[in-house]
Structure formats: structure tokens, C-alpha cells
Design brief:
The chain has 267 residues and is an alpha/beta fold. The chain has helices at 28-37, 53-62, 75-86, 99-107, 132-143, 167-178, 190-200, 214-223, 238-242, 255-262; strands at 9-12, 19-20, 23-24, 42-46, 72-74, 92-96, 111-113, 121-124, 147-150, 156-159, 162-165, 183-184, 207-211, 227-231, 250-252. Strand 4, helix 2 (53-62) and strand 5 (72-74) form a beta-alpha-beta unit. The radius of gyration is 19 Å and the shape is globular. The structure holds magnesium ion. Magnesium ion is lined by residues 13, 15-17, 211-213, 234.
Amino acid sequence: MDAVTEARGLIMDMDGVLWRGADSLPGVAELFEALRRRSIPFLLVTNNASASPANVQRKLRTMGAEIETHEVLGSSDATVAWLRNRMPPPAPVYAIGEQALLEALSLAGYDLHQRSDGVSAVVVGIDRQVDWSKLTEASLAIRAGAIFVGTNADPSFPMERGLAPGNGAILAAIQSATGIDPVVIGKPEPYLFTHALQRLGTNPEVTIMLGDRLETDILGGQRAGLATALVLTGVTSRDDLQHASIQPDWIFDDLPHFLEAFNEAEP
Ligand SMILES: [Mg+2]
């Protein structure tokens, strides 16, 4: 793709692109207006397995943007979609995670067990109440042959006070205890992107991944064959870019600059 204006679909990260923590970034309402006006299908994606589509919809409404819940794809729903192909419901599952992941699994018809006995899969997403007994159940099930799936492997989880352990740290504990590597669904692994493209119905060459982080959004987008655009309102800075081996197709200071390029073709 030579120019951003040629995009026929858009996959977007949220934190660091549309907002930072609770604060909206400039250009959010205008971005969705432009997408609707030009009938460009889009999908909001996140590695955060504790984010539900309904929460994202509510948050964007406070920022003046209206979206449908099917326009959000979190790593919880992507993990359930992967699991459906591999092991259809009502397979017995042991899950570590918060409400959004547990609900996605049980809505899909999986039989959620409280203990490791007899489960076919262990699904692990961020769980801010994780403890030794949950890690034990997960490890026992995996050692007994259950498949080990992680929603995402982000090592850290941003909080107001700094970086807390992310789901990658929980996966690492189970990996260390079992010697078995998880299948990871979220960015930069390919499944979230291939599933997102399927939902959008667009080809990767005409679809842009817009994100703020080189090692997840941009690397993952490139691996899946998408064009990539980076905004500098989140994790990656101009300074990081100078020393990085991963380089996006386009770099924008912020969303309004992306929009300017995106809208250029309009009369
Ligand atoms: Mg981000």
C-alpha cells in the first residue's frame, strides 16, 4: 500500500492510540466519523483479556464515539474462537482469568471446572486475584495432558503507579512449573490478526494495523502481512524508533495527523 488513503480496512489498538488510562486522546470522535463516512470497516483489538466489548463501547461513548460491540475484539474472544476450532464446547476447561474471560468461555458453552481433574484445556488470562492454588490446578492439568493456552503474553500491565506483572508473568510461572510452553493468542502472535481479518472481510495488503507499540502492534501486523502505522501517543517514542529493528510503514505524532493523511483523498 503506497498511501494511508488506500486502506480498505483498519485494525486498531486502543490504549495509547485512543486513550491513555482514563483520558481520551485528541481526534477519537473524528476518527470514527471518518471511518463511517468512508464506509471503512474497522476492528478495535486489545491483548487485555479483562476488557469486554461492552466496557469499550461505554468508554468510547464518554469520548463522543459510538461503536457496536462486534467492532471490538479482545484477546478473550479471540482465545475462545481459537479454542472452538481446536476443541469445541462443551469441553471441560480450567481457566485463570477475570470476568470477561470467564464469561466469554461460559457463553460459548465451555464447561468451567474449579479443579484440574479431567479438563482438556487450561486457559490463562490476566487475573489480579491469581494465587498459588490456581497456579497449582493449572499446572496439574497441563502435566496431565491438557492444552495450555494464554490470551496474551504481555510481561507487564500498566497501572497508575507503574508496571505490574502482566499475563506473561502468570504464563511464565506455569511454564516454569510444567516445562510446557503455552499457545499464545494475542499480539504479536498471528491468531488475533488472522481472526480480525476474517471478521473484517478484508485482505491484509489493504488493511492497516494502527498501534502505539512496536513489539506487539507493529511486529504482529507485519507478521500477518498488514500495512502498519504507528502513533507516538503511547509506549513507543521517536527515540525508541531510532534504535529499533522493527519499523512501521508510517509514523504519526498523534491521531489528528493520522486522520489528515487518511482523509487526504476526500474532495
Ligand atoms: Mg497500546
